[in-house]
Amino acid sequence: MPIQISPSVLASDFANLQSEIEMLNDSEADFIHVDIMDGVFVPNISFGIPVTEAINKHAKKPLDVHLMIVNPDFYLESFKKAGANIISVHIEACNHLHRTLQAIKDLGCKAGVAINPHTSVNLLEDVIKDLDLVCVMSVNPGFGGQKFIENTFNKVRVLKDLIEKKGSHALIEIDGGVNQNNAPLLIQAGADILVAGNFVFSAENPIETIRQLKNL
């Protein structure tokens, strides 16, 4: 399957959000990645349900919503109503992960789990067959523009092996510090989806940058 691209609007120009979303609509992007941060689970606050609704109003691509928040179960239905097609929760934030994943699926969304750089992918062994997506954080979550963590390559290989061993259909998404240098190596290791924020939105021609990532 060709690599899929999910540009993160966290790096977009919020003052011109509609035009940024329309640019992504015109691009070869597969998803629009929406980072939700609460200032508790991660040391930053981004945006919430009203901005997600505003994005969805103009988006023609599926919304890939990444909840970097505590108590995500309280907000699953609200983000579904706001337009989420994929909802990813952090394993570190969920006391009853299986229950949370079932709640996401019951809403009609695809269910993802995000894992921080320090978290072993082996902790997903008992739920990997229930997942549509694993979002591997290749930076510490909370801020855009961070340096890519090199151990991610090995982590992706281990995760790919787990997915194949368990007969799971989960896709591997990489979030953080993705660029033209590490993207080919991530694909080689087994990545299916690349989240790109600053690399896309700070580019002179974001549409061309997305096209180049798609064609690696």
TrEMBL record:
Active site as annotated: D35 (proton acceptor), D175 (proton donor)
Pathway: Carbohydrate degradation
EC numbers, comma separated: 5.1.3.1
A single GO BP: pentose-phosphate shunt
Binding site for substrate: S8, H66, G142, F143, G144, G145, D175, G176, G177
Top-level lineage group: Bacteria
Catalytic activity reported: D-ribulose 5-phosphate = D-xylulose 5-phosphate
Physiological role: Catalyzes the reversible epimerization of D-ribulose 5-phosphate to D-xylulose 5-phosphate.
Family: Belongs to the ribulose-phosphate 3-epimerase family.
Name this protein carries in UniProt: Ribulose-phosphate 3-epimerase
Organism: Aquiflexum balticum DSM 16537
